[in-house]
Specification:
48% helix; Rossmann fold; alpha/beta; 24 strands; six-stranded parallel β-sheet; 833 residues; nine-stranded mixed β-sheet; binds (1S)-1,5-anhydro-1-(3-chloro-2,5-dihydroxyphenyl)-D-glucitol; 34 helices
């Protein structure tokens, strides 16, 4: 029974219902009230941190009001909702975003200034919410922003990690990891201690016969861990819709079980149980594009899926609809295979707890789920060992075997006697130990499977999931090319450019219809406009230069070409290609006469990104970058012609400073390896040009902005297999220019060459899997073309403006509308007063 106030008493509630501040004065009043009462501080005792907390609390109040309205209205209209299940939400900071989305940043700036604070300093107090590794987690955050902005009734479900992605420190050129404890004084989350779900692990399955003689399964004994909900409001831009991100935190079940232990005097063991339970949501696994099959990770996955499914089913049951209407009320999107157990869990609930027949239940399940694949890299594809799953989730393993059996029976009918096909597509890989292939389970349990860029989706259909295209036909497989939210990545990160565009287009409508950017093309030849455009780029480069100076101590000249590669460090993303290119440039400049040097375009090569703590090769790449920086930056022969910078602890808030400041950025993965890439979009949207391979979304960026506005190089995806094959059979010759680079490294020019031998050997001796040598010449030549192009300032500016004008396609608003139409079948719901 819901606790609700009877109608005659509601008048008093309505009269005193919370209201929102609407101007600077009202904001100041709220700010001071929060500082003096909620925070118990005063004007004698208010630092920037208190000003941040007060401002956040004032804006939080506004969000709560609209959040409550949104949730009430969504419940009342009772239409279909989307649930986005993601183990990662890389949100970054919330305050600036809240101020802009609510449309009150100017009032806040003036108000803070009246009280003695600079808004930028206040904003900078906030700790990033870093519950993600890289692209996949940030995509989920951009999706939340677009779903709210477009008024879709949508919830995110994730885990409330006590520690987000580690903080990176560089010590003597090496990466060190420091824990990221971020939860103290987080004003953006609301604990819902009354919303809990008991989650079961281990135990065993018992078969019984019910009164009708049917065999039923019960999952008994084992351990119970409690999931507690923490809610985070997600405001849309320029709309009242404020959606919910629900994050689950684990704690020991408050059942009699532990009380018994306490009562029996077994205090130590009871405390240990508690700590054990809390371990589940303690830490984000720090791997991007890599799965390592650890039991705790599987526990995280089930814990989060089971809690979310329980919550979704509970909400559905309140509507008292028939089960076959479930898919008309609920769409669940699986962000990668991490939440695949949700498929099995829903089948378990429907069969074991609600008593549905298999086929009816399975029909509901497959209509409900959609699965997004983000990578073709084999080391990233999840497989769980059967014995591990047998032990932790015995009933789920049974269900997976049943799902597999029914699936293989239908395959057998369509492809009689094709034993090979059966073993290829089986959910169970017949290895030692046997493994559960999660991607196959996700395909079989979903009605749509999508990749994240055209090339990527094509590769899925022709390679990884080829058999499934034959079995289900091509319609189950589709493409939804990624995007980024222009609110954070243009408006928030680059206020100067956003204001200039708004001035030219007569308003900020482009932020919610990014295709309107195309109107900018009319101004490409406008001298004054170009001038302002160039000026803004310089201002943004100055802002980054200042940041670099304050964090690394290095001075960089904003007139140099800023060449940036920031993303997770991975061999397939080829930061090694970049740093080898930098060494090549260094050697070339060192060989030049004074006369020749005058023609060199000065460069700053900027790197940033984290390596997974156990990924030695990636850590070696970071080490090499830092050692090269040490040598190059203090070489008097080089001066300002080349600087190398490694920005420590790359994260979302740093990306907001970095993306607007590039002249050139690098997206240079081996063709066919990057699912989509999304930083490519952020950089182009901010007027930077890019150098890239024909990979992921680079291809569609080229289609949109035109070949003349991008620097493409390297081998094509279709040629990669053949090249690798040749290398494998000894047909390999180190590129002669790369050989010079290796010789320099081996001469100990950048410190002990032994430190980098694994890196050079992987290319020279172990088959150069990522084709660094094959692409080196093309890479260097293309960088030469970049230098030439940069000398012609006017033409460079024209390319920059034209590119931005043509980036409308890459808004996550377009992406979310495609998901809504082709996968979720949901409609927006506008929130009115
Ligand atoms: C991840 O960040 C991505 C894929 C994946 O399987 C796992 C993780 Cl943690 C990335 C892709 O590498 C990238 O190309 C893509 O843009 C991003 O997901 C969002 O789709």
């Amino acid at each position: 029974v819901e606790a609700s106030i009877p109608e005659p008493l509601r008048e008093a509630w309505r009269k005193y219902s919370a209201s929102e501040f609407t101007n600077k004065e009202e904001f100041e009043k709220e700010l001071v009230r929060h500082i003096e009462t909620t925070l118990a501080r005063s004007l004698y005792n208010c630092d920037e941190n208190a000003a941040y907390s007060g401002t956040a609390l004032a804006f939080r109040d506004r969000l709560i009001i609209e959040w409550n309205k949104t949730q009430q209205r969504q419940t009342f209209t009772d239409q279909k909702r989307v649930y986005y299940l993601s183990l990662e939400f890389l949100m970054g900071r919330a305050l600036d975003n809240a101020m802009l989305n609510v449309g009150m940043k100017d009032a806040a700036r003036d108000g803070l200034s009246d009280l003695g604070f600079r808004i930028e300093d206040v904003i900078a107090q906030e700790h990033d919410a870093a519950l993600g590794n890289g692209g996949l987690g940030r995509l989920a955050a951009c999706f939340l922003d677009s779903m709210a902005t477009l008024n879709y009734p949508a919830w995110g479900y994730g885990l409330r990690y006590r520690y987000g992605i580690f903080k990176q420190e560089i010590v003597n050129g090496y990466q060190m990891e420091v824990p990221d404890y971020w939860l103290d004084n987080n004003p953006w989350e609301f604990p819902r201690h009354e919303i809990t779900v008991d989650i079961q692990f281990y135990g065993r399955v018992k078969n019984h016969q019910n009164e009708n003689g049917k065999v039923v399964h019960t999952w008994e004994d084992g351990e119970i861990v409690q999931a507690v909900a923490y809610d985070v409001p997600i405001p849309g831009y320029g709309t009242k819709t404020t959606n919910n991100l629900r994050l689950w935190s684990s704690k020991a079940s408050s059942g009699e079980f532990d009380f018994q232990k306490f009562n029996a005097g077994d205090y130590e063991s009871a405390v240990a149980d508690q700590q054990n339970a809390e371990t589940i949501s303690a830490v984000l696994y720090p791997n991007d594009n890599l799965e390592r099959g650890k039991e705790l990770r599987l526990k995280q996955q089930y814990f989060w899926c089971a809690a979310s499914l329980f919550d979704i089913v509970r909400r559905f049951k309140k509507t008292r609809r028939a089960w076959n209407e479930f898919p008309d009320q609920v769409a669940i999107q699986l962000n990668d295979t991490h939440p695949t157990l949700a498929i099995v869990e829903l089948q378990r609930i429907l069969i074991d707890e609600e008593g549905l027949e298999w086929d009816e239940a399975w029909n509901i399940v497959t209509k409900t789920f959609g699965y997004t694949n983000h990578t073709v890299l084999p080391e990233a594809l999840e497989k769980w060992s059967v014995p591990l799953m047998q032990n932790l989730l015995p009933r789920h393993l049974q269900l997976i075997y049943d799902i597999n059996l029914f699936f293989l029976q239908t395959v057998e009918k369509r492809f009689p006697k094709d034993r090979e096909m059966l073993s290829r597509v089986s959910i169970i890989e017949e290895s030692h130990p046997k493994m559960v292939r999660m991607a196959y389970l996700a395909i079989i349990g979903s009605h749509k499977v999508n990749g994240v860029a055209e090339l990527h989706s094509d590769l899925l259909k022709t390679t990884l999931f080829k058999d499934f295209v034959e079995i289900y036909g091509p319609d189950r497989f589709t493409n939804v090319t990624n995007g980024v939210t222009p609110r954070r990545w243009l408006h928030q990160a680059n206020p100067l450019l956003s204001a200039l565009i708004a001035e030219k287009l007569g308003g900020h409508e482009f932020l919610t219809d990014l295709t309107l950017l195309d109107k900018l093309e009319a101004f490409v030849d406008d001298k004054d406009f170009r001038h302002e455009w160039a000026h803004i780029k310089t201002m943004n480069k100055l802002r980054l230069a200042k940041f670099i100076k304050s964090t690394t101590g290095h001075e960089v000249d904003p007139n140099s070409l800023f060449d940036i590669q920031v993303k997770r460090i991975h061999e397939y993303k080829r930061q090694q290609l970049n740093i080898f290119g930098v060494i090549h440039r260094y050697l070339t400049i060192k060989d030049m006469s004074a006369e020749e040097k005058k023609k060199v375009v000065p460069r700053v090569s900027i790197f940033g990104g984290k390596a997974a703590p156990g990924y030695w090769m990636a850590k070696t790449i970071i080490h090499l970058i830092n050692k090269v920086a040490d040598v190059v930056n203090k070489d008097a022969d080089i001066g300002n012609l080349l600087k190398v910078i490694f920005i420590e602890d790359y994260n979302v808030s740093k990306a907001e400073i970095i993306c607007p400041a590039s002249d050139l950025s690098e997206h240079i993965s081996t063709a066919g390896t990057e699912g989509s890439g999304t930083s490519n979009m952020k950089f182009v949207m901010n007027g930077g040009l890019i150098i890239g391979t024909c990979d992921g979304a680079n291809i569609e960026i080229t289609r949109e902005i035109g070949e003349n506005n991008i620097f493409l190089f390297g081998n094509l995806a279709e040629d990669v297999e053949e090249l690798r094959h040749r290398h494998f059979y000894g047909d390999f010759q180190l590129d002669p220019q790369l050989a010079k680079v290796f010789a320099a490294i081996k001469s100990n020019m950048f410190g002990d060459a032994a430190d980098f031998s694994a890196l050079t050997a992987s290319i020279e001796e172990h088959g150069d899997y990522y084709l660094v040598s094959d692409d080196f010449n093309s890479y260097i030549t293309t960088h030469g073309m970049v230098d030439e192009a940069f000398k012609n300032k006017e033409e460079w500016l024209a390319k920059s403006i034209t590119s931005v004008a043509r980036m409308g396609f890459f808004s996550t608003d377009r992406v979310i509308n495609e998901y809504a139409d082709s996968i979720w079948n949901v409609e927006p719901l506008e929130i009115k007063d």
